[in-house]
Amino acid sequence: MSRPALFLLALCLSLPATAAERLQKFADLDVHYSAFNSGFLQPEIASAAGIVRGKKQGVLNIAVLKAGKAQSATVKAQVRNTLGQIRALSFREVREGEAIYYLSQFPFDQETLHFKVDVQSGGGPLNSFEFDQQFFPDE
To answer: Has keyword Signal (predicted)?
Structure first.
């Protein structure tokens, strides 16, 4: 098994069921996303991905596929907390073999966060979606 496949398998296996990956479909693009507490990752996996683990540090992971193949994209997002405070997220593109994904970290308290995500790939249309995710600090 290749290194990227092992990394992605380890990333998936290290997350609890509540942080399950989700999918948003736009015409010929599939946008896979997951938001989770960085403490769910094993230290070596977090380090390999350049993620800082913390009790109140979340991670948003976005991957864009077209016909099952990874696509580079422009990804922008913002997160709004329960007080209505909005924070723009900046993403880091990670390429491992044929895999391309975008990672961003954000702080949180025990709360439900609202995410708004914009994705554009290959000069195509801007695709937007929103979702809510509840977060709890690590003990």
So the answer is: yes
Polymer length of the chain: 139
Instruction: Give the global pTM.
Output: 0.84
- The total number of structural domains that make up the chain: 1
Three-class SS state of 13: helix
92-134 tens-digit pLDDT? 999 989 999 999 999 999 999 999 999 999 989 999 999 999 9
Quote the CA–CA distance of 126 and 106 in Å, as a whole number: 23
Which of helix, strand or coil describes residue 14? Answer: helix
Rounded to 5°, the CA angle 54-43-133 comes to 45
